[in-house]
Specification:
Blueprint: H1 26-38, E1 77-78, E2 94-95, E3 150-155, E4 162-167, E5 179-183, E6 186-188, E7 195-196, E8 225-228, E9 231-234, E10 258-262, E11 273-277, E12 296-298, E13 307-309, E14 328-331, E15 340-343, E16 363-365, E17 372-374, E18 396-399, E19 410-413, E20 437-441, E21 451-455, E22 474-476, E23 485-487, E24 507-510, E25 517-520, E26 542-545, E27 556-559, E28 568-569, E29 575-576, E30 582-584, E31 591-593, E32 616-619, E33 630-633, E34 642-643, E35 649-650, E36 655-658, E37 661-664, E38 684-686, E39 695-697
Antiparallel strand pairs: 1-2, 3-4, 5-6, 6-7, 8-9, 10-11, 12-13, 14-15, 16-17, 18-19, 20-21, 22-23, 24-25, 26-27, 28-29, 30-31, 32-33, 34-35, 36-37, 38-39
């Protein structure tokens, strides 16, 4: 029988994992013991420079000059909402770089006196963190979710492989290594059905050694937890190990008053990283090189730590690294450093470093003397932003912007008849103010140039968006590079316009392989299905039934999604039903109904039906004869094997799956169990001539 270490025996302090002899300072001795007791979050590079967890620092790049703007040799990072736990091999935080290289000072500091450089400007007005924490959104920093939700590992349609996504409390846990219902950050382990993922519980994700047939992916689903030795332990608080994530793999802490950094004995790398207080006198600078009120971040560089000191006050010299106290920016800083801290964030003043660049009502904008705070974006005003493309209010377009010369450009009207198209539109074509205008290149600009808004929808005019025309006209889309124009075609009962278009309120309906297609009312309840393809389309809440393109039967649009009704078509080819029901295989076609519970029909329409929990399996399903199958208990001795992750089969502890049935294992004369402990103590797993599997014997 498989034995497992108790949770207390997993405590790394018992194994002397850290060498405390190298620690001479009592404070760091405490941190090391706390690290050992709290568990680690994986090996990460040590940080011995400023702003360890910020992925870079404001003010470390640019070339010699006599002026410029706020720059940055690094980038500001925000916690990657989808960063996996350390045990799942996550790749750290997402760095948000708002602008391309911009003019800057010799060290990227705020400058008030001209010059050139190549820093990176990152301001609150240019970027905002993506939404996170709610159901269906990416997990926030520390793999946290709101309201006791669970941070799951899912493969999304957006691509990029598995991502960490939140499921709200009370909703189903799904994805890699977690099933059941989310309860206070906890799910159930596949195969065993035991709680997992919350603090003090096993990590979620069955491994091959546990009989789960999985790939060894272990995660914690609760907030601010680290999977350590298959146990979920708290992380990210003062004195605890850092949670997974952080710029460059540095790690994440729970509050802005804590910073993730290597302890003294681990400064050379390869050890644990701890969350420690920051921002106070003599303490490390917090993220983005910030300190508490009345202190500035002294960042000498050269591998020396950045600490909060009494420097950078208004009118005083800048701190090392070109930093100042909150609400100030370093002015007049040259190749030999220096500079004076002056007020920032007000109208006409330099933009402040950090997350609040300008006062309320002002935005950080490009100017000839550096990035400054100003009113912008209105008609006739300068364009907002410091990037290559300025921004304006709705109905206005930024024109004349030249970032190299420091020209912000001006916001001018756009989108009207004869005006330049506003920004946006599919393929970058641009948008117009009304649906009766279309954005298109003028004749002289066919090979490139400004797109202009022109009237559409009338006789002989270009078709409007989505190939629509005015009443009594249809869009003739000949293709082959010819323009789509509005013509007298596509009326009710008449042939469809070229491109399969019809007049407003009508759809092109197929009439068989040889009979062509005509325009008629379609898509509504009881009406013919629209379209000429193999699959007809209907309005929302309706499904196309009885379509046969070979015989010319268009099919009829009928209600869907309710009990006993056809499944509605969903995005990406999925099928949808009303809440509490699933789409399932039946003798009369795919229909919606209650399914998946013990004794109920199996859900799904594929070859393998699905059930609601891992301790149920679909039995008796035959897709060739449209036999749905039933969900029955599995995993115990004498029951069918449960479906495991990765296509494997599982049984409860003490049982083994043999020819799709769970049998007791591990005792004398019983089959050997799978995993690292195939037999009970004193027994050995021996091949048997009388049995098809090895058995346990003395």
């Amino acid at each position: 029988m498989k034995t497992r270490a108790s949770k207390s025996s997993r405590n790394p302090v018992c194994t002397n994992r850290l060498n405390t002899k190298a620690v001479s300072i009592a404070f760091f001795s405490f941190l090391l013991v706390a690290a050992a007791c709290g568990g680690g979050s994986g090996t990460t590079p040590a940080v011995d420079g400023p702003a360890a967890s910020s992925g870079g620092s404001l003010g470390s790049g640019g070339s010699t000059g006599s002026g410029g703007v706020i720059g940055s040799g690094g980038v500001v990072t925000t916690p990657d909402a989808a960063t996996p736990d350390s045990s799942s091999g996550g790749a750290g935080d997402v760095a948000i770089v708002v602008d391309a290289p911009a003019p800057g000072g010799s060290d990227g500091s705020a400058r008030l006196d001209g010059g050139t450089g190549d820093g990176v400007v990152v301001t609150a007005s240019d970027a905002s963190a993506p939404a996170c924490g709610e159901s269906g959104q990416a997990c926030c920093a520390g793999n946290s979710c709101n309201g006791g939700g669970c941070c799951l590992r899912l493969t999304t349609d957006a691509g990029g492989g598995a991502q960490r996504i939140c499921a709200s409390a009370g909703s189903a846990c799904s994805g890699t290594g977690a099933v059941g219902i989310c309860t206070n950050g906890s799910c159930l382990a596949p195969g065993t059905g035991t709680p997992c993922g919350a603090v003090g519980q096993d990590c979620c994700g069955a491994t091959a050694a546990d009989g789960g047939g999985g790939g060894g992916t272990l995660i914690c689903t609760g907030s601010y937890l680290s999977c350590t030795n298959n146990l979920c332990v708290a992380c990210g608080a003062d004195g605890q190990v850092c949670c997974a994530g952080g710029g460059g793999g540095g790690g994440v802490c729970q509050t802005a008053s804590l910073i993730c950094a290597a302890v003294a004995s681990d400064a050379a790398g390869g050890g644990v990283r701890m969350c420690s207080p920051c921002g106070g006198q003599g303490q490390a600078c917090c993220a983005n090189q910030t300190c508490s009120t009345g202190l500035g971040c002294n960042a000498p560089g050269g591998g020396q730590p950045a600490t909060c000191e009494s420097c950078g006050a208004s009118g005083a010299a800048c701190c090392a690294g070109g930093n100042c106290q909150s609400g100030l920016a370093c002015a007049g800083r040259g190749a030999d450093a220096g500079g004076t801290c002056e007020s920032c964030g007000g109208s006409g003043q330099a933009c402040c470093p950090g997350t609040t660049a300008c006062a309320t009502g002002l935005s950080c904008s490009l100017s000839a003397t550096g990035n400054v705070c100003s009113s912008c974006g209105g008609s006739g005003q300068a364009c907002c932003g410091t990037g290559n493309t300025g921004t304006c209010s709705t109905g206005l377009l930024c024109q004349g912007r030249n970032r190299t010369a420091g020209s912000a450009g001006t916001c001018n009207p756009c989108g009207g008849d004869g005006q330049v198209c506003c920004a946006g539109g599919g393929g970058g074509g641009g948008t117009c103010q009304t649906a009766s205008l279309i954005c298109a290149a003028v004749a002289s600009d066919a090979s490139g140039g400004a797109n202009i808004c022109s009237p559409c929808g009338g006789q002989g005019q270009a078709c409007c968006a989505n190939q629509t025309c005015n009443v009594s006209l249809g869009c003739e889309a000949l293709g082959g590079g010819q323009p789509a124009t509005c013509q007298s075609c596509g009326a009710s009962g008449a042939a469809c316009c070229a491109g399969g278009n019809c007049q407003s309120g009508l759809g092109c309906v197929g009439q068989g392989a040889d009979a062509g297609a005509i325009c008629e009312a379609c898509g509504g309840s009881g009406q013919a299905c629209c379209g000429t393809g193999n699959t007809g389309t209907c309005s929302s809440g309706l499904a196309c039934q009885g379509r046969d393109r070979t015989t010319g039967a268009a099919g009829t649009c009928n209600p869907c999604g309710g009990a006993g009704q056809a499944c509605c078509a969903g995005g990406g080819g999925t099928s949808q039903c009303q809440t509490g029901m699933g789409c399932m295989l039946t003798a009369t076609g795919n229909q919606c109904g209650t399914c998946g519970a013990d004794g109920q029909a199996c859900c799904g329409t594929g070859n393998n039906g699905t059930c609601s929990v891992a301790t149920l399996t679909c039995s008796g399903r035959v897709t060739a004869s449209n036999t749905t199958g039933t969900c029955n208990p599995c995993g115990a001795a004498g029951q069918a094997c449960c479906a495991g992750t990765g296509g494997g089969a599982t049984c409860s502890t003490g049982n083994r799956c043999i020819t799709n049935q769970c049998q007791a294992c591990g005792a004398a004369t019983q089959p050997c169990c799978t995993g690292a402990t195939p037999c009970q103590t004193g027994l050995a797993c021996v091949a048997s001539d009388a049995a098809s599997v090895s058995v346990c014997q003395q």
